[in-house]
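note to self: the first set is below, dont mix up w the second
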Amino acid sequence: MSTRAKHFAASGLLALSLAAWAAAGDDQARIKAKAQAERDPIKRAQLEIRLAQFRLDGAQKAYEEGMPDKGLAELKEMMALVQDAHNRMFETGRNPRKKPKGFKEAEIKFREMTRRLKDLRLSIPVDDRDPLDSMIAKIGKMQERLLKGLMQVDEAKQ
């Protein structure tokens, strides 16, 4: 491959990666606006979970780039979104066993976030892990509550 062809290929890859980065930012803004306008609490919760995933992506990137303060700020925003989504779903009064739409997806996403947080935890210094441990435990409890609701486990008997 000639030098000119290599330069052209590198320029093309750079343009594609910049376009993908810009589209991700647009997606977040679009999803945030859609979530704020959404009247259905289950759909709004799903959008908040999606935004939380973007925050987790941002936190992972910040920690990889050596910016733990920014990473922790992203994780705190993620936790607020996850907590709001969880509360919003249960405030509907819907029975997750009878109407699982939204609850099932949330349980899966919470399980995925817990796994990603555990992976992130292993990549950061031991001194910085306490906030992550707390977040992992909280999301794990929320995920368990969703799962119990879907499986119709009575929390009073536990």
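second set (the one i keep forgetting abt)
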Amino acid sequence: MVHFNAQFRSFRVVIVFVLSIVVFSCRTARAEERVATEEALMRIRVIAASLEARLEMTQNVQIWIVPVDERMVSVERIHKGASADDVFIIQLDQSFLEGLNDEELQAAIAHELGHVWIFCHHPYLQTEAFANEIAMRVVSRDSMKKVYAKLWLHLGTSGDFEKLLGTETKTPANVAVAPNVIMPGRFVASRMCCW
């Protein structure tokens, strides 16, 4: 019986030791994941702030990285009431975000900021095409094509670049193009949606 108790105590010590290692490893992994997410969030906020400045936006825009967003990237208006400014929250699906390079991330954020800009200037003209038109004031059409291609691949679907980005115009090499020039288009009222 004494021999059994000694073995049982040894077994308990081993179990406690193994559980301690597992718990410590999980905490360390979660801490590393949290630091990586916070670093990514800071990088994204810097990109967003730069785009907001270039679009001359003063709205309260917050950025969140979420485990799952069915639209991959979206924006939502939080109405604060008559006495307070509204808040716009841009959510990025973590797995989709991890597949974007900086150029594509800028394009995705610019698109969502396009929705915010439209809401504050022409709230009844919410369309993907109009949000892209606003976005292309600060990012290239090519960047928008790249992020849409990744989005469609991620979702297992396809779309029409011409419909979403307008007809691509060729500029002769000897003609200078003024920045921030927006080609007028036709817009249909729709609810605020993203991607």
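remember for set 2: The helical segments are 2-54, 94-98, 102-121, 128-135, 141-155, 161-165.
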